[in-house]
Design brief:
Blueprint (H helix, E strand, L loop, with lengths): L38 E2 L12 E6 L17 E2 L2 E6 L4 E5 L2 E5 L4 E4 L5 E2 L8 E6 L6 H6 L10 E2 L3 H19 L6 H26 L11 H13 L6 H8 L3 H12 L3 H19 L4 H7 L5 H12 L3 H8 L1
Parallel strand pairs: 1-3
Antiparallel strand pairs: 2-9, 4-7, 4-9, 5-6, 5-8, 7-10
Helix pairs in contact: 2-3, 7-10, 8-9
């Protein structure tokens, strides 16, 4: 996994291609992995010239999309996946929410999110994958690549859709053109073209979240807080501790988080802890006590109380409900 996503229990790894060959069937409760949600890393060997991104058509004939190699079970990836659909509908689960994507919709899956294809052969359109670290940090922050609070399913209006399609077509042309530039310049052109697409996508995502005023709100303060939470949520649940570690006053942190997300820092932390708890409860057979311990609650009773206060269910009830 990358630094933006920390697994609380060991995860299996494989390539986002070959390892899928035996993964055609969905898993039921009796087949739930004992202690892992499998994570597939980005494989640059599958990219043109080994660059940190891929783009190509989805569907049976797509060279970058082998439906038989895409799992219809829950899993994570450690890279970004953006799918622009030309057909549908298809239903894609991301972190306990089913998203119905139709022609003209965009689905953005971020690193570490637990998701599932259903069924992979029905997907039509263009798929873009990009490796964490392929873009400079300033672009990552400006385009909100790790804004997990933004909606994954986006529905652009006709003008926005036309612009996104134009950007993706240009990006795909640059991606396959390995003859006219040396590798260093080819990679630089890809980064610039990808950045233009992501700025448009980020603008759409912020508007879809109903917070148009937050367009530039992924400030340095919030960005550093978000990264710290993603890194330390399993061991640190204290707003004051985060503020002290980052060198901000509690008030400054509250203002920055509210501007970017509309919620309090404590709410932001709790949401991340509860999400990981739900992932582990739903998709593994790790005992409730071990789930709590992995998330910073050595006492199982305290973990159950914390989870119940924020979800209305005990961990055991939640596991039974989703199982």
């Amino acid at each position: 996994m990358n630094s933006h996503e920390t697994d609380m229990v060991d995860t299996g790894t494989g390539t986002y291609g070959d390892a899928f060959q035996t993964s055609d069937e969905e898993i039921g409760p009796s087949q739930r992995p004992a202690g892992a949600i499998q994570t597939f890393p980005f494989d640059p060997r599958a990219s043109v010239s080994g660059v940190g991104m891929q783009i190509g058509p989805m569907g049976e004939d797509g060279p970058t999309w082998q439906s038989r190699a895409v799992p219809e079970r829950v899993h994570r990836v450690d890279f970004h996946v953006v799918m622009l659909f030309t057909g549908g509908p298809v239903t894609h689960m991301i972190d306990f929410t089913d998203h119905e994507a139709r022609a003209g919709d965009v689905l953005w899956i971020r690193p570490g999110q637990v998701h599932r294809f259903r069924p992979a052969h029905a997907y039509r359109g263009t798929a873009l994958t990009m490796q964490p670290g392929f873009l400079p940090r300033a672009i990552v922050e400006a385009t909100g690549l790790y804004r997990y609070d933004l909606p994954p399913l986006l529905r652009p209006d006709p003008a926005q859709l036309d612009a996104l399609r134009h950007c993706l077509r240009q990006l795909e042309r640059e991606y396959v053109d390995t003859a006219t530039l040396p590798l260093s310049l080819h990679t630089a052109v890809l980064r610039h073209t990808l950045t233009a697409f992501l700025y448009r996508l980020a603008h759409l995502a912020v508007g879809s979240a109903g917070r148009p005023g937050a367009e530039g709100a992924d400030s340095t303060t919030f960005g550093r807080f978000r990264e710290a939470v993603e890194r330390d949520f399993a061991t640190n649940h204290s707003v004051s501790a985060y503020a002290d570690a980052l060198g901000y006053s509690r008030r400054t942190l509250v203002r920055a988080v509210r501007a970017a997300t509309g919620e309090t820092p404590k709410g932001f932390i709790d949401k991340r802890v509860v999400l990981e708890a739900k992932r582990l409860l739903a998709h593994t057979d790790v005992p409730v006590g071990r789930v709590g311990a992995a998330l910073g609650f050595p006492d199982a009773a305290n973990f159950s109380k914390y989870f119940h206060q924020r979800t209305g269910l005990t961990p055991a009830m939640f596991r039974a409900e989703v199982g």
